[in-house]
Write a structure and sequence with these properties.
The protein has 362 residues and is α/β, with parallel strands linked by helices. It is built from 12 helices and 19 strands. α4 links the parallel β3 and β4. It starts with a strand and ends with a strand. It has 2 domains: 216 residues, Alpha-Beta Barrel (TIM Barrel), CATH 3.20.20; 125 residues, Lyase, Ornithine Decarboxylase, Chain A, domain 1 (Beta Barrel). The strands form 4 sheets. The chain has an 8-stranded parallel β-barrel with strand order 2-3-4-5-6-7-8-9, surrounded by 4 helices. It has a 5-stranded antiparallel sheet with strand order 11-14-17-16-15, with no helix packed on it. Strands 18-10-1-19 form a 4-stranded mixed sheet. α1 crosses α3.
Length: 362
């Protein structure tokens, strides 16, 4: 059986590390979008609430609604709310991050139609990532437009484009733009909202700019985009499978689709029941990725199939049914495995499919 083991004690460790890096008065938002980075949305969110997270954050209204259905009452930010989902968002009492004039107008209309007042919103500014958000010069216009009884602007925020890099000309520019936005709000408003800029890497790399809150996702799962930062954290997830079958092949025999690998000598091949439909993409094949069996690394050979892949086990003393680790706290990390396929831990973790059983450990 394919299993993703989730160690909640490691989640607690990472939460504590991050808390200790910020001021006691700084809010910590636990980002649990994309099924809590490919793990298990509701149980991870529930544990973060128990640990004392100030808010949760998700990507979509659907994710927020799932958490409400699970019984979570903690405030939930929705980073990328869509206009057609405004009714569901309001029904679930979710806090939208408003990023465009169009969305702001539609949200105001919906709130006013229901005579809702002081609904919490968060304004997203585009300081240089150029993904979504208001332009920095829109501050005064937004102050006027959000000065309606239907709105309560909870926070102002932006997102660094390369928070793992320092020095970074782009990040420095973004920080200066954000500081100007903050200064304008503080000049115009007697009681300005709070401000936040940093994600996981930013907490480690730009600690002097934590402002009033930080948003952490991947770091809670044990990764912060640099090995020296990762060393302070503990990976939450371990991906394991069992050997389905072992073949002995002769020199010159081909393995897998399109003869993706040809045995250079007589050897043994183990077939594992994960493939690109489970999130182990074809880019890990052809001896790029490795798995760990009995403490030894075995290369993934040939082309990764939809439901299976093959590894060369050679003289590794393994049998059918033995456990295989793709990544985990005691073996290679998800970041190390991801790098073998020329990708990142974010893509690897969030791409793990639903056929992999999630198992929670205290």
């Amino acid at each position: 059986m394919n299993q993703l083991h989730l160690y909640l004690s490691h989640l607690e460790h990472n939460y504590t590390v991050i808390r200790n890096k910020i001021r006691p008065t700084t809010q910590l938002f636990g980002v649990v979008k994309a099924n809590a980075y490919g793990s298990a949305l509701a149980p991870i969110a529930k544990r973060l609430v128990e640990l004392g997270v100030d808010k949760l954050a998700v990507a979509s209204t659907e994710e927020g609604t799932q958490l409400r259905d699970y019984g979570i009452k903690t405030p939930i930010l929705v980073f990328y709310p869509q206009i057609e989902k405004i009714p569901e968002l309001l029904k679930a009492d979710l806090e939208p991050c408003v990023y465009s004039d169009h969305y702001l107008n539609q949200l105001a209309a919906a709130l006013n139609s229901k005579s809702i007042q002081n609904y919490p919103i968060h304004l997203k500014f585009n300081t240089g990532l150029n993904r979504i958000g208001f332009a920095p010069d829109a501050v005064e216009m937004l102050i006027q437009k959000t000065n309606q009884s239907c709105f309560k602007v909870e926070s102002i925020y932006s997102h660094l484009a390369a928070s793992e890099d320092r020095p970074s000309i782009l990040c420095d520019l973004q920080i200066e733009r954000f500081k100007q936005i903050k200064a304008t709000y503080e000049k115009v408003l007697t009681n300005p909202p709070y401000f936040h800029l940093l994600n996981s890497s930013g907490v480690f790399n730009y600690p002097e700019y934590e402002f009033d809150a930080v948003r952490c996702g991947i770091a809670l799962h044990g990764y912060a985009n640099k090995l020296e930062w990762d060393a302070l954290l503990k990976p939450v997830a371990a991906l394991k499978a069992q050997i389905t079958q072992i073949h002995s092949v002769k020199k010159g025999e081909a393995i897998g689709y399109n003869s993706g690998w040809v045995a250079p000598a007589e050897t043994r091949i183990a077939t594992l029941p994960l493939g690109h439909a489970d999130g182990i993409g074809r880019h890990f094949g052809n001896q790029k990725g490795t798995v760990v069996i009995k403490g030894q690394k075995a290369p993934i050979i040939g082309n990764v199939c939809m439901d299976m892949l093959m590894v060369e086990v050679g003289n590794i003393p393994c049998e059918e049914g033995d456990e295989v680790t793709f990544f985990g706290p005691m073996d290679q990390s998800a970041e190390e495995f991801a790098q073998q396929g020329n990708t990142i831990s974010y893509e690897l973790l969030t791409g793990l499919g639903p056929r992999i059983k999630r198992l929670l450990h205290p």
